[in-house]
Amino acid sequence: MNHPLAQFVYCPKCGSHQFVEHNGKSKHCEACGFTYYFNPSAATVALIVNERDELLVVRRAKEPAKGTLDLPGGFIDMFETAEQGVAREVAEETGLKVTATRYLFSLPNLYEYSGFMVHTMDLFYECQVASFDHIKAMDDAADLTFIPKTEVNPLEFGLGSIRKGVMRYLEQF
After folding, report:
1. Extended strands (E) in 63-97
2. pLDDT tens per residue across span 32-88
3. What is the rounded distance in angstroms from the CA atom of residue 55 to the CA atom of residue 49?
4. Which domains does the chain have, with CATH numbers?
5. What sign does the CA torsion over 129, 134, 137, 140 have?
6. E strand segments, 30-173
7. Element (H, E) at 93
8. How far apart are CA 104 and CA 128, in angstroms?
9. Are 89 and 74 in contact (CB under 8 A)?
10. Per-residue confidence (pLDDT) for residue 116, from 0 to 100
């Protein structure tokens, strides 16, 4: 797999093709002197457990890993906090209103989007919701279900960081 910086041929500041690898994290423009550092995109993951100690999981409606299990979440928007981002993503995918969040841990991830490999930093949150009365699969979620935490199989989760995060969550919490 090529490094993501290999896809950037022209300097984003001046448009020069003299945009060369500077080190493993950046490219440098020999024409204007601009150095671009490639950093991960922030994404959130919601761990939501009901009163029966069951974990809310979604079935992915889109690639990558379409049809596999996932947790609600997604990319954080510009000018949004991680807590706002996880609450928005939960609402978009499930219709649920997040009332409280608690940061748990983070994991690096590679996420293919439209043929482009995106490096992400996935921020895992335990989320409480107002109620489960109006839960509905929407947006990136094809289906929603609750699985008793004792029966969750991390290998059924299609994305690597989610699989690792579910394992870590089940071991620690």
Report:
1. 69-70, 73-75
2. 999 999 889 999 999 999 999 999 999 999 988 999 999 999 999 999 999 999 999
3. 5
4. 4-37 (no CATH), 41-172 (3.90.79.10)
5. negative
6. 35-37, 41-47, 54-60, 69-70, 73-75, 98-113, 116-129, 141-148
7. helix 82-94
8. 13
9. yes
10. 78
* Cβ atoms of residues 16 and 9 within 8 Å: no
What type of residue is 37?
Y
pTM exceeds cut of 0.85: yes
Q: Which amino acid is at 87?
A: A
Which among 154, 171, 62 has a CA at the least distance from the CA of 112? 62
* Residue given tokens 């493993």 in the structure block: 24
Cα–Cα nearest to 120, from 66, 45, 48: 45
Q: What torsion do the CA atoms of 151, 165, 75, 138 make, to the nearest 10 degrees?
A: 0
Instruction: Please check whether residue 44 is in contact with residue 36, taking contact to mean a CB–CB distance below 8 angstroms.
Output: no
